[in-house]
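Comment thread on ticket #2218

A.B. wrote:
> Attaching the input chain for the structure job we discussed in standup.
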Amino acid sequence: GAVYVKGQFFKVQGEFSSNSAQYGGAIYVAEGAGVDVSFAKFETNKATSGSSIYLSEGSFVPNGLSFCNFEDNFDTNGATVVIEADDVEIRYSNFTSNMGMTGSAIIWTGDNGKLTRSNFTENAVMGNGVIVFANGTNFIIDSCNFDNNVAKEGIIKLIGNSAKLIGVTVQNNRAQKGAIVLDGATISIEGSL
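C.D. wrote:
> Ran it. Output below, let me know if you need it in another format.
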């Protein structure tokens, strides 16, 4: 990958394109390390998992991922952003035309994740969902749009956790099992869909 962060805090801006790695095609953040990612573009990166960003368990992102664009990234067994870390927020970001086998845009397993004012357009996944929240707790999706995505199971898939959707728009998507799939999960919806 382009950047491997270990044992330090790293600020990321700029453009990352055509990078590849097994994990974290553009950026891999190891346990105990941290990043601040803002105003960055990730395009045509490839990985087994986390073609753009891989935040491993125990890493930290105090200011979240903000004002980022993720486009045309590909993962053979994951998603363009993989979040194992707790307390991460993604805001004001766009995910467009990403492809994956398990999840195309995000696979999120850390606790207390928040997704705010972001757009998901024309992403495709062979299994699971465009966004997969697995095993973590207290997910919030606030004021996000999902338009013209394709998934085998659901556009948003929740596995064994709890989530709240506030003002979420889901339209023109195609999924075999529905827009939102719950697998042992609980959800509350306010002014969404």
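A.B. wrote:
> Thanks. Noting for the ticket: The longest strand covers residues 34-43.
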